[in-house]
Fold these 2 entries.
Entry 1:
Amino acid sequence: MIRDITLGQYYQTESLIHRLDPRVKLAGTLIYVITLFFYKNFVGYALAIFFLATVIRLSKVPFKFMVRGMKSILFLLMITVLFNLFLTPGTPVFTLWKLSITKEGTSLAVSMALRLSLLVIGSSLMTLTTTPNNLTDGMEKGLGFLKIFKVPVHEVAMMMSIALRFIPILLEETDKIMKAQMARGADFESGKLIARAKAMVPLLVPLFISAFRRANDLAMAMEARCYRGGEGRTKMKPLKYRGRDYIAYLILFLFMFGSIWLGRLTLPMLMVG
């Protein structure tokens, strides 16, 4: 389960999506996530699925590797679907004891499941095709206008990049600790929910110690290299837009306007919440 989390990992390959400017991918991810909340019918979700599938194909990231990240949110996805199925008022379709599955609840459950799945896969695609350094440069450059309001853009971008970079490292560390404790007789998979939660306590203590140690080592390394923030710093490889980036922006805006138009359509037979 730990190794199934793909957020924060980078998949090394040569593709058109990998070569895009990180600012384009950040804007694309933001636009895609926002448009997911515009859809009121399955035609809109079909457009979102087609768009995401096309981008995944162009990225050359294996689809199995992409979907593997869904295993980490499977429990949350099931809870979301069940809550919407049984707790949404409306026209009853099926009754089980005192709980009823309604037509509106079914539509809302399908809608929420699609939104959550597409959101996770779409967000993971950005980190899988963008190195941490490029992600930091893209955030800093794209949010540069906030400097007018005295927002420390460089520091914020650096913190977000480090946080994303540490996700796969901490997951790998967690996996090592779990295997070491299981070799000593620890059991993390059997028993009731409360028992399994208590079994995680011995895992969290060494994990937190390791995380603080890594953070301290990183801070000392940055100080040893005279890091003093973003003021006056230059880039070895400054970001520059190319023709493919402008074409990608055009496609993104067309997708956004198409999503807004589809979201305003009223299709009674396909309503999903």
Entry 2:
Amino acid sequence: MTVMRSVMTGVGGYLPETVVTNDDLARTVETSDAWIRERTGIRARHRAAPDQATSDLAVEAARAALADAGLTAADIDLIIVATTTPDLTFPAVAAMVQRKLGAPVGIAFDVQAVCSGFVYAMAVADGFLCRGNARRALVIGAECMTRLLDYQDRTTCVLFGDGAGAVVLEAREGAGTPDDRGLIGFALRCDGTKQDLLYVDGGPSTTGSVGHLRMQGQQVFRNAVVNIAEAVEAAAKAAGIAVRDVDWFIPHQANQRILIGVAHRLGLDESKVVSTVADHANTSAASIPLALATAIADGRVKRGDLLLMEAMGGGLTWGACAVRF
């Protein structure tokens, strides 16, 4: 029996030109390179230029993914952008990406699950593709997180950066086994009772403003290690694989200690963990596709590899997906 799979045929990433090091931040914020590195593993992050919006970052990543797939925007009939930092309240960033790419009329919308957005968007795209409602999708994670930061709060302003990553998914037939290329299993979760652990204190219907990011770091860390591990195991079970058999673990790049903590809880060797947090910081929904693009570019991730991706963000939302690249 054959089944339809959402196969990843192109991957691309984009980082703004401006790099902000820990030492740069220490000139204006009461912090230090040693303090940041010890607690997070972050050395630097990228910051979008004043005239760059989230859609601009998304378009650059999308173009790279399309080129990698050997396709053009004319081949895309579904665009999903995972973001928590849209250009405007509306229209969706996906609609702007469609216009800027010159893609034809099709389906385009945003997914808002904060740092978990890319995993959520992959699952949503899989539903469209496998039911025959689209043929080729662009799934993009794009963020200008530095626009949400309170630079008087040294515990949060050092954690985030800007960037975008994108993948092209195509509907293809598979045999219905874990050896199939494509998305083979996922698990999505949300616990709205944990909202106060990680949120932004503004919005159109409350303050009429964008607001700033607020976080209870220790509580987020405790929830992250336990919850993410459960979702990863659930996604692996749905895919019919064992976690120990994955080739690469590609987590949301929030904090090096969380990355390693989850890997240890899952029994994964640290050598299997793709980490870009040192140079990218936390780019929210963009972090997984950016890390994937980095690992493909440097030759670690190869065609046929089994990947496990996971994330946790405000909401609290979290989730994981298993993909045969």
